[in-house]
Prior knowledge:
The protein is 42% helix and 13% strand. The chain is an alpha/beta fold. The chain has a single domain, classed as P-loop containing nucleotide triphosphate hydrolases (Rossmann fold). It has a 3-stranded parallel β-sheet, with helices on both faces.
Amino acid sequence: MESLYYRNTECCVLVCDLTDSKSFESVESWRTEFLKKLNKNDQINFPFVLFANKCDKVNERKVESKKIKDYCESKNNMTFFETSAKENINIEIAFEEVAKLAYKRFSKNDKKYITNRYCCPF
């Protein structure tokens, strides 16, 4: 059943909490677990975007930008954004990047999806 959740995935968003170092330390296991679910051909260049959330809580910060940058560089230059959902910092641009990466991958693979033709527009 869980493989159905991953089928046709075009991009994966990982989220960590900048005020919780354990949250950042878990990112790699989440990434690895996700990759295990994919077809082996997809694993090498699969697009991920990391949202490092709660950047507004400067005094409570536990994860430094350099640590995040170094991690992302080691993972095929994964894109990351320091975000704040509460203060709406970098949220729109982060999701725009997710959409761009997903569309790029979708276009490259030229997948055909079946749409629901009976959807009521009201």
